[in-house]
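Sorry, I am new here, but would you mind making up a protein's amino acid sequence and the tokens describing how it folds?
***
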Amino acid sequence: MTITPITLQQFSYFLAAVEHGSLSAAAEANYIAQPSLSEQIRRLEQQLGVTLFIRTNRKLIITDAARMLIPHAQRTLAAAEEAAAAVNPIRHLTGGTIAFGTFSSAHHLIHADLATNFHTLHPGVHLRLIGGNSVQIADAVREGQFEAGLVALPVDDRGLEVGPVEWAAEAVYITRDPARTRKPLPVHEVANAKLILPETRWGDMDPTRRQLVALAQNAGVTLDPIVEVESASVALELTRRGVGDTIISLALAQALGSTKTLHWTSLAPRLYETFAFIARRYANLSHRRRPS
């Protein structure tokens, strides 16, 4: 036989009936119809296998079983309220810890501003700001490791809510040779260059690489980098040493100071990295703010 579990609502209605002395007054106090409250108390009596009230025309008479139940029902409801209060700091962003993931180069561009703005708004909350490839961040958000993330698009959005694009940054061709930057560089010429590309661990799964591959395919060429490295800063250093040329965000190259010693030009057609906030679908996102 399947036993239906007792609910907090049933205990709440039971105590209201005890307090008010009638089912109609208890129902009025809980803003529900009397038949609905009476049905919940009847179910509680069935589940317990006892009679809690003797119903008369004038008032409810509390049985011995009800008297024994009252302190237990009170403690149960109090414990439920205490449990709900325990997560208030998380719900209201006054305490707890939030893990937020960002695309790999964000620590060069926005981490300081993002952390400062968040701390100003929610000084009691501990923030874990973690960088990684956008593919990795999307997986971590999907699996619940991070509450939310800021990623470069496109990413696999299964199980995710992808917010509107927050901003876009142009990815440009960067070289030590100024002669190569006199005009926007067609993709078929990029394919003939000695390319140094970052995000080697993720390869063509990386959002920017995916766009590059698509541009090359549309032009009927294939990109075959001579060197692949993990970080954009290493790609820029190798470019400075004359090993080859690279393609990264202009904003990142400027943040790293590389545009002072290297030369750059746009691709033809231009390539833009777009960034958006992501969160698990149907999850409550505690904080959603554009970095300034």
About this structure: Residues 285-292 have pLDDT under 50 and may be disordered. The chain has twelve helices and 13 strands. The two ends are 60 Å apart (CA to CA). The chain has three domains: 8-86, 91-166+275-280, 167-273.
